[in-house]
């Protein structure tokens, strides 16, 4: 799900690992000849399940029964009440060449002993499996290893690699495993903290050419284990992705119709007229070449003041020029006292009464005003709400938060944006995901959202990073599968109850610049 970029300095030392070869080297490692296919599973764990992990889709059901396994609406859980016992969840979908990854955290760290283990298995069958195991030792020190398990027992493919980061309780780590090829089997793995860029290389890798190499098809499994000295704990899993790896063809491939064409941060993913393969041309769009007639431009008289906001909404803060809508935030000469002290003015536009739809595709190309260290409290957003607030559902296609922040977390939102699905307006019933670390301090990027009767997908610069499935999700049905149509909102708030309020360090002006907003109808 995350786009591979250069490894951070903190992880660089953990990447330079020798790749051992098990058995004969006559068969070359062909891993570099493979490409990633369409994901079979892309599970944000947004359903609720009290016994087992349930189903991802009609073709993928998790083999997991018992009170140790559950899904709480945002995370899948494996409880470990007893030490020395492996608890696993199998996907029951057979692949040979595969890449899989997930986010994992533990609610408690060991204080002594070996620690807590989380594994990803591939090619699992009666013959055995390959697995990447992330071990979190006491005090949060992390190790990664590759093993082959058969009826003969465990064979270490690599020595355990000490990773260049530590984890704390309830802090997520990404784990990725790739297995490709035969008769020589390439096995590679990497791990990195959630909130950091994915390393461009692999932490550990091996080629298995031995007589015991597992060359057949098998399933992917997720498992957890704790040592005898580790406390009773629960491991939480999120964003499980499983995709086939395909051997690259030397011939010209048949054309593929992508959901969203490739893009770069400075090139719109749709063509000049807005055409997108599979969606056609927009049914509604604004290139901001003239007035804002397609929008209702709000002020505090028509919209009031927003919760937590430290700004007054003014019509003059939303203007168009040279094909760009600018929503300007500005520190006022004199604060306004209105449901609290408001030191800034800002802009807000929406399409209420002018355009709304259920299902479809929405896209914005914009430049965010979130320069480092002087944008505390600045909160630009691109979001959807139902007409007449007929349900509590809310779709946040893009929200981003200025820094420095004052939240009680080590996660840094700088150069990130967030996509969130709210099932109601409590702020508690939701599922959210962050884009990979990207330079958002300058230049334009695209944020898109696709909604079909099967589910929803969030995209950044043309690449999907979050998916929520409809199947088996009662909260989703209640909030979104009604007759309600959803309209578009663009605004920039000052002040977040979580990330913090603006202060004297917040820059005096901030311009949220939008190149276009486009919407496509769902054609079935």
UniProtKB/TrEMBL annotation:
PANTHER family: GLYCOSYL HYDROLASE-RELATED, GRAM-NEGATIVE BACTERIA-BINDING PROTEIN 1-RELATED
Signal sequence, renumbered to the chain: 1-30
PROSITE patterns: GH16_2 (PS51762)
Keywords in alphabetical order: Signal
Alphabetical list of InterPro entries matching this protein: Beta-glucanase-like, ConA-like_dom_sf, Glycosyl_Hydrlase_16
Stretches assigned to the GH16 domain: 277-524
Sequence segments annotated as region (Disordered): 249-271
Organism of derivation: Glutamicibacter protophormiae (Brevibacterium protophormiae)
Signal as UniProt keyword: yes
One Pfam short name: Glyco_hydro_16
Composition skew (Pro residues), residue ranges: 255-268
Protein's name according to its UniProt entry: Beta-glucanase (GH16 family)
